[in-house]
Design a protein that fits this description.
alpha/beta; Rossmann fold
Length: about 375
């Protein structure tokens, strides 16, 4: 790893000349490195002297300091533009989670810089962190929480990854995947898709999203009237849900959780499922939660008020599988859940009926379900 001194910005600059150099750099990227060229052209570029060097927001806007750009050649600007665009393409802001921002930025820069150097994109920024072979690893694998650049910071561009936007994480992840596919096609059509980039593309496209993140995004998408920051809730420490997060201010209606107790769902899996669901319930603030345990018949029903949370789950029953009894129970008792979440390993009678209640099937076999929203989980 090499860290050198950061290049100094110039005292004065010609904005028109800066924009000309950036435009030329973008043209060269499109012609010689179409994957990175496409990635850059999709970004809105803003010039802002308050930004130390450059900044890539989670939402896709690229901020550049014109004084910093004035001291760079066109080749180095090519590298800079591609570097910033790759932060968005690889969802680095959203993937940071609770990691140290400086150390995470360094890990991400190692991957991107080695990728760009291997693809011979422009000329690296002086002072940038480098690690030969880093392109073959993910930023998560390279992350070292105590790595702050040997006390000198990241050098080169510096900390250039914006804060994650949790409320839009699913949309932004989908956007980055879509743009990655199109950028890859543009490069393939031109016969200029480097092997290292192709591996990164496959990683982005095939990267699985944890089931509980999908469930959280789905359940909170419609209930974000407002957000405030909250401290960790000590009641959830036992289930591992101890990280701070947003608190959605509008309460959700009642929720029903159906638990299929006929299959091979273990106590440990139920405990882990409960931990993740408790975290989501804390965000959604439901009016109440009804947990219905069912195999071929309803075996147990437990009602929770908000003050009773967190929920705990236990195995009941152990016979055959039928999903209908849960929905019959809801209708017969006049329950009006905003959403039904059904935990199952599949293989039931869901094809024999259809409920009018909005339902999320959390299952290991998504092919078995013809109605409702299906979230495939494997494993817990």
């Amino acid at each position: 790893m090499q860290i050198q001194k950061t290049p100094k910005e110039v005292a004065t600059f010609d904005q028109a000349e800066i924009e000309r150099k950036v435009g030329y750099a973008k043209s060269l990227l499109i012609l010689d490195h179409p994957f990175f060229g496409y990635a850059v052209t999709r970004r809105t570029i803003c010039y802002e002297e308050a930004v130390p060097t450059a900044l890539m927001l989670a939402t896709g806007q690229m901020y550049l300091n014109p004084k910093f750009l004035a001291g760079l050649t066109v080749k180095r600007i090519m590298f800079l533009l591609a570097h910033e665009a790759m932060h968005f393409m690889l969802c680095h802001a959203e993937r940071r989670k609770q990691r140290d921002p400086v150390a995470w930025n360094i890990a991400c820069d190692k991957v991107i810089n080695d990728l760009l150097i291997d693809a011979e994109v422009g000329i690296p920024i002086e002072g940038g962190v480098t690690m030969p072979g880093a392109r073959n690893f993910s930023a998560e694998e390279l992350y070292d929480p105590v790595d702050n650049g040997d006390g000198e910071g990241n050098g080169g561009i510096g900390n250039d990854i914006g804060e994650p936007v949790e409320a839009e994480s699913a949309l932004l992840a989908a956007q980055s995947k879509f743009e990655t596919v199109l950028a890859s096609k543009a490069a393939k059509d031109a016969g200029k898709l480097p092997a290292g980039v192709e591996r990164i593309v496959k990683m982005v496209i095939d990267a699985p999203t944890p089931w509980y993140e999908i469930l959280e995004q789905f359940m909170t998408a419609r209930y974000r009237a407002g957000v405030s920051w909250q401290r960790p809730n000590r009641r959830f420490l036992a289930s591992g849900q101890y990280l701070p997060g947003p608190k959605y201010l509008r309460k959700m209606g009642p929720i029903v959780i159906g638990v299929d107790t006929s299959g091979s769902i273990s106590d440990q899996e139920l405990c882990e499922f409960a931990g993740h669901v408790n975290r989501i319930l804390e965000l959604c603030c439901p009016e109440g939660v009804t947990v219905i345990y069912c195999d071929s018949v309803v075996n147990q029903v437990v009602d929770y008020l908000p003050e009773d949370l967190p929920i705990t789950l236990h195995p009941y029953g152990g016979g055959g599988t039928s999903f209908r009894p849960v929905f019959d129970y809801i209708d017969e008792r006049g329950l009006a859940p905003e959403i039904v979440v059904y935990l199952t390993d599949g293989n039931g009678d869901q094809r024999c009926f259809k409920s009018s209640h909005e339902t999320i099937w959390l299952t290991t076999d998504s092919d078995q379900f013809s109605w409702g929203q299906v979230i495939r989980q494997n494993p817990f």
